[in-house]
Design brief:
Layout: H1 2-35, E1 80-84, H2 90-101, E2 106-110, E3 121-122, E4 125-126, E5 130-133, H3 136-140, H4 144-157, E6 160-165, E7 173-175, E8 183-188, E9 190-195, E10 210-214, E11 220-224, E12 230-238, E13 253-260, E14 269-273, H5 279-292, E15 302-312, H6 323-337, E16 340-341, E17 346-349, H7 359-370, E18 376-379, H8 393-409, H9 432-441, E19 446-449, E20 464-466, E21 469-476, H10 493-500, H11 504-511, E22 514-520, H12 529-544, E23 548-550, H13 554-564, H14 580-584, E24 598-600, H15 608-616, E25 621-623, H16 646-650, E26 663-667, H17 677-684, E27 689-694, H18 697-710, H19 714-718, H20 721-725, H21 733-743, H22 748-756, E28 764-768, H23 769-774, H24 776-787, E29 799-802, E30 807-811, E31 817-818, H25 833-842, H26 844-857, H27 863-872
Parallel strand pairs: 1-2, 1-5, 5-6, 6-14, 15-17, 15-22, 15-23, 16-23, 17-18, 19-21, 21-22, 24-26, 24-27, 25-26, 27-28
Antiparallel strand pairs: 3-4, 7-8, 8-11, 9-10, 9-12, 12-13, 13-14, 20-21, 29-30, 30-31
Helix pairs in contact: 1-6, 6-7, 6-12, 8-9, 18-21, 22-26, 26-27
GO molecular function, one term: hydrolase activity
EC number: 2.8.2.8
Catalytic activity: alpha-D-glucosaminyl-[heparan sulfate](n) + 3'-phosphoadenylyl sulfate = N-sulfo-alpha-D-glucosaminyl-[heparan sulfate](n) + adenosine 3',5'-bisphosphate + 2 H(+)
Length: about 850
């Protein structure tokens, strides 16, 4: 019996010890899982307990009441008009940064103390759906005429206003803005904030939360309201100043954001105290835009995120993951799935470095491969070398085959369709060999980079599609290969916490519908900053926002991205040598010297081929080599050739023997009226000079029609010129197409204005086509001056008039001439008077606009234009 009792007591002690051990293990596991090895890595919990005093005891008469609804929009474009103090004002830049990050279209104007407002309507359509004032007092103090005009516009088109108010002096100011029944108290120190749960203003922001602690700065502007015209949105407590206004001591709560319901004058407004430095103001600013524009300018509540862990198996000893780190990674992934639908870490590997760490780190490698089905996987390079260092495709293929063999041997999936190049090398600027090798070995459909179009500012990053591979923008999250210890985080641990709690990382997620975050293997060992960051980010987002977080596999994510942003499908190639980071990841065998210094852009049938012949006569001017399909014309910036890439384009140009004196150029006459060409040219060769030739647009249209007849175009042969130019909206598609090619290039002012959006007037030279035909030597002298080319070439001695051809030709030895081919200078019947009269009337307004443009540019009017303008009088 005693023996049985001893066994029972021993069993009870064993169970108790085991239970205690399990509880301690759970606590320790949780401790190491979320904070690494340092206890002070814990991010302070975000309190959901309202620390503000009871709403019913606040001095405001109205918290909920009439919530107000945005006015019905009457014929307005989804644009925002922003009045800023100057190009350099910090708040103005912050406002614009948020609008750009949110992809809201806007027009920024310097707020004038006096003077006219910008045009607010066009063709009876309101140009703006919302107006923002960086300094609302500029609106309050506006002269009566302009203020009445702006208010009338807001009332007529249902447009609201967002205004910021802040003090300008160090002393406390307390005042009533003229025309408004709330009091402003500026230069205050505040602490704690809470959101009015009754407000209808919120969209992304969750209303049931409170922020604790001293808020940064002593320059806060707070609002005091005591009537039903205004609804407080964010409350705060003020730190009572010594010797401040007597009425402040009677109140302990104020508002830093208020919503003007528009009950007193019909215009709804949202007022912000201070600026956007406070992250909650920035979040509510985005919500206010959504609310006041009736969600015409709004952000979805869905956020897709993908967390890439680069450099799996890569890293020096002491920085890699051990078995416990891998276990923590798995457990954290399960935790994050409760906050992020389908969350899965995406692991990028270089197989060459497998088992190159310490014994414990090698066990971590083994556990990763033992858990291969728990993660998503994508390939880097086998040796983690930058792809642009491989100058031929076969070397890249060999590297990729080694990595693929490693993957197959260890059960790593090879069909995810996603890859990332080390240091983003070869993705942008494009290394064509990388794209081809990726498709051949891995069947890659998606990659990502932080380099397109540039690393900074991050809000400008975009995606594009090249060689049928979708390239997505990648985001940094403050975790680099060297950031492995919490206490040694650059700028201190508080810098990382600020980024998570309403800082850069938080707003990267908030303002981007899709975010691919770049992290590294080393961020998940040691203090496990990767786990710390994303667990606490997910908590903060859940606590303060209504966002729904989701994860999709890379191919599905890319498809979703280009559904949201179809306008980004086509890339915009830029000069790789204009960005040091781009030069560093671009092949050393390539050179930007093989890009043109000037372009002849057309339009067609104005004498561009003759100009081309004259230009190449100059000893320092060199054209591109012929294109097998389009002859001397490249037709790169306006068609499918653009998608071949910069390397294809530069291969048509020689390497200049003398960079300072050699002038490379190309002539493509259909660039002139192209919608895409101006932006594309400016992106790749922003300093290039542009030459265009103008003749009477009626003659140009007729010449194009005859050109098409000579090339046996069936539509031109079937229809007369008059039938083509007068075709109505119900004409056959092929007839309307020919009509457009005849008429549209002659809208000269429209097309030149498009080029002037991207190039300054000093880089544009306009040639009178009639003068080029009659006096080419003088025209070419002006062209030489415009280009700044040397040595001076005397065209008077180099050209001779050919009476048989009817135009000027190159003079060769022994008096012989070299003229344009048979296709140039064709003889065809003169245009009949009926067609000329129709076209003269058709182009009348266009010619008037051209004369105004040339006058603005200080350019002389061509003789044909002066003749046409006389008909207008």
């Amino acid at each position: 019996m005693n023996y049985i009792m001893k066994i029972r007591r021993h069993f009870q002690r064993t169970v108790l010890l085991l239970s205690t051990f399990c509880m301690v293990s759970i606590v320790i596991s949780a401790y190491y899982l979320y904070s690494g090895y340092k206890q002070d890595n814990d991010l302070s919990e975000v309190s959901v307990e309202v620390d503000c005093q009871d709403f019913d005891s606040l001095p405001y008469k109205l918290l909920g009441g009439q919530t107000g609804r945005p006015s019905v929009f009457l014929r307005t474009d989804p644009f925002i008009l922003v009045f800023i103090e100057s190009q350099y004002s910090q708040l103005g830049q912050d406002i614009i940064s948020v609008l750009e990050s949110s992809r809201f279209k806007f027009n920024a104007e310097i707020a004038q103390g006096k003077g006219d407002l910008p045009h607010l309507t066009e063709n009876h359509i309101g140009k703006y759906a919302l107006i923002i004032y960086e300094n609302f007092m500029k609106y309050v103090n506006m002269d009566m005429w302009n203020k009445d005009l702006l208010d009338k516009y807001c009332l007529q088109y249902g447009v609201s206003i967002i205004g910021f108010l802040k003090g300008n002096e160090n002393s406390i100011q307390s005042f009533h803005p003229k025309g408004f029944s709330f009091r402003v108290n500026s230069n205050m120190a505040v602490k704690n904030c809470c959101i009015n749960r009754h407000t209808s203003l919120l969209h992304i922001t969750k209303s049931s939360n409170t922020g604790k602690g001293q808020l940064f700065g002593n320059e806060w502007t707070v609002f005091e309201v005591n009537n039903s015209f205004y609804q407080p949105v964010v409350f705060t407590k003020v730190k009572m100043p010594v010797g401040g206004p007597a009425q402040l001591s009677k109140l302990s709560m104020f508002a830093t954001v208020i919503y003007d319901l528009g009950l007193h004058d019909g215009i709804q407004r949202v007022f912000f105290g201070n600026n956007l430095n406070f992250w909650l103001h920035k979040l509510i600013f985005v919500d206010a835009i959504s609310f006041l524009t009736n969600k015409r300018l709004t952000l979805s509540l869905k956020r897709y995120i993908l967390v890439d862990i680069d450099d799996i198996f890569v890293g020096k000893e002491g920085t890699r993951m051990k078995a416990n780190d891998v276990k923590a990674l798995l457990e954290t992934q399960m935790l994050l799935r409760s906050k992020v639908t389908n969350f899965t870490f995406n692991l990028g590997f270089s197989g060459k470095f497998y088992h190159t760490g310490t014994e414990k780190e090698d066990k971590g490698d083994d556990l990763l491969l033992g858990s291969v089905d728990e993660f998503w996987w994508f390939p880097h390079m086998w040796s983690h070398m930058q792809p642009h260092l491989f100058h031929n495709e076969s070397s890249l293929v060999e590297q990729m085959m080694l990595n693929k063999k490693f993957a197959l041997e260890h059960g790593i999936p090879t069909d995810m369709g996603y890859a990332v190049a080390p240091h983003h090398s070869g993705v942008y600027p494009v290394h064509v060999q990388l794209y081809e090798a990726w498709k051949k070995i891995w069947g890659i459909k998606v990659t990502s980079t932080e380099e397109y179009p540039h690393l900074k500012p991050a809000r400008y990053r975009q995606g594009f599609i090249h060689k049928n591979i979708m390239v997505l923008p990648r985001q940094t999250c403050g975790l680099f290969t060297h950031t492995i210890f919490y206490k040694e985080y650059p700028g201190g641990p508080s810098e990382l916490d600020r980024s998570i709690q309403g800082g850069e990382l938080f707003f990267t997620l908030v303002l981007n519908p899709i975010s691919i975050f770049m992290t590294h293997l080393s961020n998940y060992g040691n203090d496990r900053l990767g786990l710390y960051t994303f667990v606490n980010l997910a908590k903060f987002v859940e606590s303060w926002t209504n966002l729904q977080l989701l994860t999709l596999p890379p191919v599905q994510l890319a498809q979703k991205y280009f559904q949201l942003f179809p306008e980004q499908r086509d890339p915009i190639w830029q000069n790789p040598c204009d960005d040091k980071r781009h030069r560093d990841i671009w092949s050393k065998e390539k050179t930007c010297d093989r890009l043109p210094k000037f372009l002849v852009i057309g339009p067609q049938k104005t004498g561009t081929t003759a100009l081309y012949l004259f230009l190449v006569m100059h000893p320092s001017i060199i054209s591109n080599s012929p294109n097998p399909k389009t002859f001397e014309e490249m037709q790169f910036f306006n068609g499918n050739n653009y998608h071949r890439g910069v390397d294809w384009y530069m291969d048509f140009f020689p390497v200049p023997s003398n960079l300072s004196t050699d002038f490379l150029f190309e002539k493509s006459a259909n660039y002139f009226h192209s919608e895409e060409a101006p932006e594309r040219v400016a992106a790749l060769v922003p300093k290039a000079k542009i030459i265009t030739i103008l003749i009477d647009p009626s003659d140009r249209a007729y010449s194009w029609y005859q050109h098409q007849r000579a090339h046996q175009d069936s539509t031109a042969l079937k229809f007369s010129f008059y039938e083509v130019i007068t075709a109505g909206p119900h004409a056959p598609a092929h007839l309307k197409l020919l009509q457009r090619k005849c008429l549209v290039p002659g809208w000269y002012a429209n097309h030149i204005e498009k080029w002037l959006e991207y190039f300054p007037p000093s880089q544009l030279h306009i040639i009178d086509g009639q003068q080029l035909r009659s006096d080419p030597a003088n025209v070419m002298e002006e062209v030489q001056k415009f280009l700044g080319v040397s040595p001076y070439y005397n065209y008077s001695d180099a050209l001779a008039f050919d009476s048989q051809k009817g135009f000027w030709c190159q003079l060769l030895e022994e008096g012989k001439t070299k003229c344009l081919g048979k296709s140039k200078g064709r003889k065809y019947p003169p245009m009949d008077s009926e067609c000329r009269a129709f076209l003269s009337s058709y182009y009348q307004d266009h010619n008037v606009e051209l004369s105004k443009l040339l006058h603005r540019l200080g350019q002389p009017l061509p003789s044909w234009l002066r003749k046409e303008l006389q008909k207008v009088r």
